[in-house]
Amino acid sequence: MSEHETYTKLIGLLEERGARYRVLEHAEEGSTEAVSALRGNAVEQAAKCLVVMVKSGKKSKRFVLAVVPGDRRVDLAALKALLGGSYAGFATPEVAERLAGSVSGTILPFSFDEELALIVDPALLEQPEIFFNAARLDRSLALVTEDYIAIAEPRVEPIAL
């Protein structure tokens, strides 16, 4: 899925489900801190989205879309323990971009791939609205958190440092 297709799919889903969101145009930026400044949101309101690979034994691996507040880091040890894994590390950019359907820095806090489990840290969900790049470096969304939870249906676990 291309970035354009991913963006179109997201907007279609939000419209279909009646989500309350705003589109924010800005200069191209993929860094959480820098794009938060461009958007005018607090960094902790930003959904930092990273693809993590968790291995269980030699032959089994799972991929997780880990979503944490923008001012925090993903706790790989917590993800490994949560999934009963023997190893957890960030997926290669190629794998992450294939599973997410967009380039690094624009990964959505939604999974459109059955290989990619969605796990969100509860601290992000305390915000009334979350902000994220919308599969593009020059466009973000501000989405009401209550609508995000209802539509994305994430597994909620403490996975941030």
Number of strands: 8
**Major sheet details:** 5 strands, mixed
User: What is the CATH topology?
Assistant: YbaK protein
Instruction: Give the termini separation.
Output: 31 Å
What gyration radius follows from the Cα positions, in whole Å? 15 Å
Largest sheet, spatial ordering of strands: 4-2-3-5-8
Number of domains: 1
CATH superfamily: YbaK/aminoacyl-tRNA synthetase-associated domain
- Could you say which overall geometry the principal axes of the C-alpha atoms support? globular
Uncertain regions spanning at least 5 consecutive residues: none
Write the layout of secondary structure elements.
Layout: H1 3-16, E1 21-25, H2 32-39, E2 47-56, E3 60-69, H3 76-82, E4 87-90, H4 93-100, E5 116-120, E6 129-136, E7 139-144, H5 145-152, E8 155-156
Parallel strand pairs: 3-5, 5-8
Antiparallel strand pairs: 1-7, 2-3, 2-4, 6-7
